[in-house]
Design goal:
The protein has 332 residues and is α/β, with parallel strands linked by helices. The chain has helices at residues 7-13, 15-21, 30-47, 59-62, 72-81, 93-102, 125-134, 148-152, 163-169, 181-190, 210-219, 233-238, 245-255, 267-273, 296-305, 314-330, and strands at residues 49-54, 68-70, 86-90, 107-109, 140-143, 156-158, 174-178, 194-196, 223-227, 241-242, 259-263, 280-282. It is globular.
Length: 332
């Protein structure tokens, strides 16, 4: 709890925000969140700051203090548009680096520097240089879930939502696609371009199994299963729909299935459920330990101290920025 905080005043100030999320945040928890929510929203005005929050953030962050929300691609696009002086990235470190690449003259904060990513850590810049030697002349397409150093060794970045479009935009017979093996396999099924992959995995999505999904189908009538392409192939085969984070959200909003299981990080189900009351969400809850390092408390501290700041070596930043900008120019 914040020091010298009038909880009753904070509850009154945040009542409208809680009304939106009360279906996914128990009322017993809100007195703990409300003082931070009120203080953070005040601090944002004082600091001329915006908070960018990924879909995997908890609802009290995603719905109550964030100014810009979405998947990696949406956050990258919107980061360029903001005129705020300070950007707080409620997500993981590679996302904060991407925001800094696109806003080199702004202060970019990551509330917990330990908020990493198993997928980003699965490959290094040296690995890409070795692959270029093995496959000379082959373009390197790198998933945005990577470090700035890895992006700097790449020709172009992509997200799960625009990966096929990015690959086909290069007009070549084969590409090196890094680092997610399962996303690479999924892309290979959607294009005639030969995909040379890497054995990187997301520690959240790789834990799902087809057998688990079939158990859910047996337990719940009229269940629609939608899965992220970072999941293993047998999981994607067992799903009714496969799509990026944004595509999964759009599917639920448009199709309005009676009962849905979103095969991805489970806070996303909470965030979508807060906006959609007529769909029942079945939650196979796999949490990302890195995303959950970001809390209201450390967002507040980060805004107060303007630390920790994200800094990128200028020589790395220039090359990495080019790969991200090429992705943004394609769309998707």
């Amino acid at each position: 709890m914040l020091p010298n905080t009038d909880v009753s005043a904070a509850l009154a100030k945040t009542a409208a925000l809680y009304e939106h999320v009360k279906s996914v945040i128990p009322d017993v928890e809100w007195p703990v969140h409300a003082p931070y929510v009120a203080a953070i929203n005040d601090l944002k005005k004082q600091r001329n700051a915006v908070i960018l929050a990924h879909n995997y953030q908890t609802p009290e962050i995603f719905h109550c203090v964030a100014d810009i929300t979405g998947d990696s691609l949406a956050l990258a696009r919107r980061a360029v548009e903001t005129d705020a002086e300070v950007i707080v990235l409620a997500g993981v470190h590679f996302m904060a680096e991407t925001a800094k690449l696109l806003n080199p003259d702004k202060v970019v904060l990551i509330p917990d520097e330990r908020a990493g990513c198993s997928l980003a850590e699965s490959i290094t810049a040296a690995d890409i240089r070795a692959l270029r030697e093995k496959y000379p002349g082959t373009p390197v397409v790198t998933y945005v879930n990577t470090s700035a150093e890895v992006k700097a060794e790449s020709d172009i970045c992509c997200t799960s939502g625009n990966a096929v479009e990015v690959v086909e935009s290069l007009g070549v017979d084969q590409v090196i696609f890094l680092p997610d093996e399962y996303l690479a396999n999924y892309v290979a099924q959607q294009t005639d371009v030969r995909i040379i992959d890497w054995k990187g995995h997301c520690e959240v999505h790789e834990r799902f199994t087809a057998a688990e999904l079939e158990q859910y189908r047996a337990s719940f009538d009229e269940l629609t299963i939608i899965a992220h392409p970072e999941c293993p192939p047998d999981v994607l085969d067992a799903a009714d729909f496969v799509g990026s984070t944004a595509q999964m959200q759009a599917y639920v909003q448009t199709e309005r299935p009676k009962r849905v299981l979103m095969v991805t990080e489970c806070s996303m189900s909470d965030n979508v459920a807060a906006d959609i009351s007529d769909v029942e969400f079945i939650r196979p809850c796999n949490l990302c330990p890195h995303m959950k390092r970001i809390t209201l408390a450390n967002i507040h501290e980060s805004l107060e101290t303007l630390q920790p700041r994200v800094e990128i070596d200028p020589m790395v930043a220039d090359k990495a920025r080019l790969a991200v900008e090429r992705m943004l120019a394609i769309g998707g």
